[in-house]
């Protein structure tokens, strides 16, 4: 018999996780949200429409409580659950935050001393419940917490279609920083590129369409070949005059974007040097050029 599950926070992540576990045969005893109508809609998406509620005490029948709320809401939620779970023998609380350790779900209150806490973090983005439902399978999922709970975490991750791996508690925030670089920062990079491109086009609305193929190819090549072999462009070729032209134009027309370009160019210069495809003397010249513009920005 699979564990009875309560889900708190049926947002985009919660909807995807809840729907996949419901499809895997886990009995959902409660889906708790703050807004009644939104919670009903989420519960219908999950496939457990009768379990929608705004009453936190409905979680007391669950063996596993999934806390799918924002990072800043985890500790207050754990405090709020103390009274609800006062009579529970050994509840297991799981959160999905990439930043926080599992023990944020164990309040100082002695009534929570016996709680079993775990952290699961799927390395995936969730633009909507539907998108998460489709993209979670095949992703990797970090599991952090007490070693005794790793089998449960691994089982749930596999039920979500994810590949589980163990993460040390002390590495949680650096791990999350890397995940943000690979997802959030890529989005920011593309936004910066399309915004700049739009200023150069007769039809600015074409910027995303124009850049999409090269963006997709660069990402695919990086994943398939690795960064050192996939890197292309004027920096790895040592085309110093081309980079100087970029910098001059940005300084004149888009000075607010110059620091962003300079930082990425320096990181790219270091990558090109590591790949042994950029001659050391060219790397030095590039570093001096970038430094000159950095001192002016």
Description of the molecule:
This protein has about 300 residues and is an alpha/beta fold. It has two domains: about 5-170, 3-Layer(aba) Sandwich (Rossmann fold); about 180-295, no CATH class. It contains 13 helices and eight strands. It has helices at about 10-25, 35-45, 75-85, 130-135, 150-160, 170-180, 185-200, 205-225, 225-230, 235, 240-255, 260-275, 280-295, and strands at about 5-10, 30, 50-55, 65, 90-95, 115-120, 140-145, 165. An eight-stranded mixed β-sheet has the order 3-2-1-4-5-6-7-8. Helix 5 links the parallel strand 7 and strand 8 (about 165). Helix 1 crosses helix 4 (about 130-135) and helix 7 packs antiparallel against helix 8 (about 205-225). It is elongated, with a radius of gyration of 24 Å. The model has no long low-confidence stretch (mean pLDDT about 95).
The gyration radius over C-alpha positions equals 24 Å
**Spatial sequence of strands, sheet with the most strands:** 3-2-1-4-5-6-7-8
State the fourth-level CATH superfamily of the largest domain.
NAD(P)-binding Rossmann-like Domain
What's the number of structural domains? 2
CATH class category of the largest domain? Alpha Beta
CATH architecture of the largest domain: 3-Layer(aba) Sandwich
Strand element count: 8
Strand/helix succession: EHEHEEHEEHEHEHHHHHHHH
Key phrases:
297 residues; alpha/beta; Rossmann fold; eight-stranded mixed beta sheet; 12% strand; elongated
């Amino acid at each position: 018999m699979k564990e009875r599950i309560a889900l708190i926070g049926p947002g985009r992540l919660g909807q995807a996780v809840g729907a996949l576990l419901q499809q895997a045969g886990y009995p959902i005893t409660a889906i708790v949200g703050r807004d009644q109508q939104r919670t009903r809609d989420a519960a219908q998406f999950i496939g457990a429409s009768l379990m929608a509620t705004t009453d936190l005490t409905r979680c007391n029948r669950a063996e596993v409580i999934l806390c799918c709320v924002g990072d800043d809401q985890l500790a207050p939620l754990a405090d709020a659950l103390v009274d609800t779970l006062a009579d529970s023998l050994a509840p297991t609380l799981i959160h999905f935050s990439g930043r926080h350790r599992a023990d944020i779900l164990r309040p100082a209150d002695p009534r929570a001393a016996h709680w079993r806490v775990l952290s699961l973090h799927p390395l995936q983005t969730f633009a909507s419940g539907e998108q998460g439902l489709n993209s979670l399978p095949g992703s990797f999922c970090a599991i952090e917490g007490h070693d005794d709970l790793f089998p449960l975490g691994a089982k749930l991750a596999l039920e979500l279609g994810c590949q589980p791996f163990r993460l040390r508690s002390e590495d949680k925030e650096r791990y999350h920083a890397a995940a943000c670089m690979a997802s959030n920062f890529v989005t920011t990079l593309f936004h910066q590129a399309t915004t700049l491109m739009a200023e150069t086009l007769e039809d600015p609305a074409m910027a995303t369409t124009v850049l999409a193929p090269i963006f997709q190819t660069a990402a695919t090549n990086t994943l398939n070949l690795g960064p050192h072999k996939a890197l292309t462009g004027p920096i790895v070729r040592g085309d110093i005059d081309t980079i100087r032209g970029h910098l001059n134009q940005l300084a004149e027309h888009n000075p607010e974007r110059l620091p962003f370009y300079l930082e990425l160019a320096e990181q790219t210069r270091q990558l090109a040097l590591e790949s042994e495809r950029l001659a050391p003397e060219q790397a030095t010249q590039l570093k001096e050029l970038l430094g000159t513009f950095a001192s002016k920005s």
